[in-house]
């Protein structure tokens, strides 16, 4: 009789243990998907727990704390307000403004000697912010790959966006105003810079053309990138390619910059269908020590030819369209009484 009582109890304990294990594993599956990413429901900042999938940040909260606590692959949504922070992003995530309007969510460098955003992870999205105040660094520094920087305003930084040793990033539809450099690609490949508006009206340094930035888009040691449908106005140099090859510049408007376009030690680039308006310098395009570049379908504005000048060892370049192929050597005016930094 005693044995008959014990056996059912053992069976009950086994079943109870099995049920508890099922509950435990179901809970783990709820918290983590197959990639280890959290799938918690969205939480407001005041209810934040470690590893939330979506976190809302309101004025007065810390964006960095939300970044630290959100899951890999999660989203930080920032409401309107002024946030004085320097943000470090070291995991894949999206950080977006609630209204997707950069006028309303302002992120100002707490320390002007540091980047406002420093992205060291892959697959990061930054969208909808007014990013300002990094005097000696970048509004957005990115060494990750597969990142999207879209719909932001970047102003009063040394570099608006600095892409370093990185690839497959997109910088699209940004307003980049009054930075020393607009977008700078260093040793970076297969990036797209598109639909951005660059301008600098002498608020940093005064130039002969009334502008004040050093370079709108600069590529250094960067290959296979696409620069498409950008407008660049009032910089010392509109677009500069140095030691950069196999890039495509298509349908850009390079207007009233002191130097419009320079190809220096750069080969096999395609410059197609751009408006290149001569600024303060005598020539629209400088080609120096560069070979096998194609300039095709470009115009110089209202019934104006594009003036091109060559420097040392520039051969096999193809020039088609409204081109004035000048023989005058390159003698750029590096400075004048109206230029200072």
TrEMBL record:
<dbReference type="InterPro" id="IPR006626">
    <property type="entry name" value="PbH1"/>
</dbReference>
<keyword id="KW-0812">Transmembrane</keyword>
<keyword id="KW-0472">Membrane</keyword>
<dbReference type="InterPro" id="IPR011050">
    <property type="entry name" value="Pectin_lyase_fold/virulence"/>
</dbReference>
<feature type="transmembrane region" description="Helical">
    <location>
        <begin position="12"/>
        <end position="32"/>
    </location>
</feature>
<dbReference type="Pfam" id="PF13229">
    <property type="entry name" value="Beta_helix"/>
</dbReference>
<keyword id="KW-0677">Repeat</keyword>
<dbReference type="InterPro" id="IPR012334">
    <property type="entry name" value="Pectin_lyas_fold"/>
</dbReference>
<dbReference type="InterPro" id="IPR039448">
    <property type="entry name" value="Beta_helix"/>
</dbReference>
<protein>
    <recommendedName>
        <fullName>Carbohydrate-binding/sugar hydrolysis domain-containing protein</fullName>
    </recommendedName>
</protein>
<dbReference type="InterPro" id="IPR022441">
    <property type="entry name" value="Para_beta_helix_rpt-2"/>
</dbReference>
<keyword id="KW-1133">Transmembrane helix</keyword>
<dbReference type="InterPro" id="IPR006633">
    <property type="entry name" value="Carb-bd_sugar_hydrolysis-dom"/>
</dbReference>
<feature type="domain" description="Carbohydrate-binding/sugar hydrolysis">
    <location>
        <begin position="78"/>
        <end position="242"/>
    </location>
</feature>
<dbReference type="InterPro" id="IPR051550">
    <property type="entry name" value="SCF-Subunits/Alg-Epimerases"/>
</dbReference>
<keyword id="KW-0833">Ubl conjugation pathway</keyword>
<comment type="pathway">
    <text>Protein modification; protein ubiquitination.</text>
</comment>
